[in-house]
């Protein structure tokens, strides 16, 4: 590849790799229901903390790739603009907290007597008693929602796991 083309390709691919890293690293490390090592968690938290700056740098690199590629032929323009769009798209997606979307609070919980709930006998349940009223919240369900607003007796409570 001629040397005058390398900066456009290197800038564009570098920008895309940085944007993809800000998207993939926290998602991969912080997957639910698996242990994280201290080093990988520190890296993921660093990427989350400095993600906006990393994305700004990636965006500037992608714009520089477009500027560098523009005087060339149409295929260079298309390739550079495609890398810019992919970089911006990955950057935009990296700012969405998918775990917040996935673990949304339960909007309208339904309750049943323990004998009618259909839960297996070995199910782990968090229990709350206020006065004469009691409620049980299956850990299996709470693990996906993490937060549930409820009223037990006359008390408004927040159940979390």
Can you characterise this structure?
This protein has 161 residues and is an alpha+beta fold. The protein has helices spanning 6-29, 38-69, 74-94, 98-102, 139-145, and strands at residues 125-130, 133-138, 147-152, 155-160. Strands 1-2 form a two-stranded antiparallel sheet. It has a two-stranded antiparallel sheet with strand order 3-4. α2 (38-69) packs antiparallel against α3 (74-94). 17% of the residues are buried. The mean pLDDT is 86.
General shape: elongated
**Tally of helical runs:** 5
Total beta-strand segments: 4
Q: What is the rounded Rg?
A: 25 Å
Helix content: 55-70%
Overall average residue pLDDT: 86
How would a crystallographer describe the biggest sheet? Answer: 2 strands, antiparallel
Structural class: alpha+beta
Strand share of the residues? Answer: 5-15%
- Residue runs with pLDDT of under 50 for 5 or more positions: none
Q: What strand line-up does the widest sheet have?
A: 1-2
Q: Helix and strand succession?
A: HHHHEEHEE
Distance between the termini: 56 Å
């Amino acid at each position: 590849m001629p040397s005058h083309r390398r900066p456009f390709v290197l800038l564009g691919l570098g920008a895309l790799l940085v944007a993809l890293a800000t998207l993939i690293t926290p998602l991969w490390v912080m997957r639910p229901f698996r242990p994280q090592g201290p080093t990988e968690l520190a890296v993921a938290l660093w990427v989350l903390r400095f993600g906006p700056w990393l994305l700004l740098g990636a965006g500037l690199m992608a714009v520089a790739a477009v500027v560098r590629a523009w005087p060339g032929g149409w295929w260079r323009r298309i390739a550079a603009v495609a890398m810019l769009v992919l970089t911006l798209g990955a950057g935009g997606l990296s700012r969405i907290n998918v775990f917040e979307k996935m673990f949304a609070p339960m909007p309208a919980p339904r309750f049943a007597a323990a004998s009618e709930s259909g839960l297996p006998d070995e199910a782990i349940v968090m229990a709350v008693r206020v006065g004469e009223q009691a409620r049980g919240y299956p850990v299996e369900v709470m693990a996906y929602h993490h937060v549930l607003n409820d009223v037990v007796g006359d008390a408004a409570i927040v159940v979390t796991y």
